[in-house]
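During the reporting period the student researcher (J.K.) took over the structure-prediction task from the postdoctoral fellow and processed the backlog of single-chain submissions. One of the processed entries is reproduced below for the supervisory committee.
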Amino acid sequence: MFNGIIEETGRVVSVRNLAGGKELTIRCDLAGEMKVDNSLCVNGVCQTVVRKDPASVTVQVVEETLRKTALGSLRSGDEVNLERSMTLAQRIDGHIVQGHVDTTGPILDVSREGANWLIRIGLDPQWSDLIVGRGSIAVDGVSLTVARVTADSFLVAIIPYTWEHTVLRNRKKGSVVNLEFDILGKYVVQFLKNRTAARQPDGMLQGDEQASGVARTTGAGGVSEEILRKSGFTG
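J.K. obtained the following structure tokens:
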């Protein structure tokens, strides 16, 4: 588990094709502190260190990960965001990031607003229930706050420090980034979907929910404040 606070940007020094995957060797200062079998978040994707030397680490990206993430586009010389897994004694300065990328999104626009940078990222509407304004999202492993959401995109604001210390500074219109939605939101949406699936033909839920009379569906409008309140998630 990670928290979306990038420790270092490393550089890919070699990409080797494997049967059903790729092997990436990344030069980074963190290599001296890593061990084989340690987890390392690479551009938001949880990977396992399979080899290391004092100056670099090597990870193997399986075919499934290549299909779901943008790691397959990496080339020798590219920079990558790196974060080691959290410890129980560590503060969560960002938000809970699993390193399990949900989807990718194209950058639609990069602009400047004062000292900050604004990035607008395209989003397939199928993911709309998992993103909310002022909620958290991991973009290439960076914990960010969603500034605005539209039907097919969302906007994040990047402060100068984050811009200078992550690979987001290298992104431009057309770049594809890894996206991981907040795990807490994913659990809530799945909970509500399960309740909907359990509905009886008469409109009531099986089990205790039937007696309580709080059965609700998400309906065409998706998750709403009323649904969350009736399901016990808000006061």
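The committee noted the following: DSSP finds five helices and twelve strands in the chain.
J.K. will present the remaining backlog at the next meeting.
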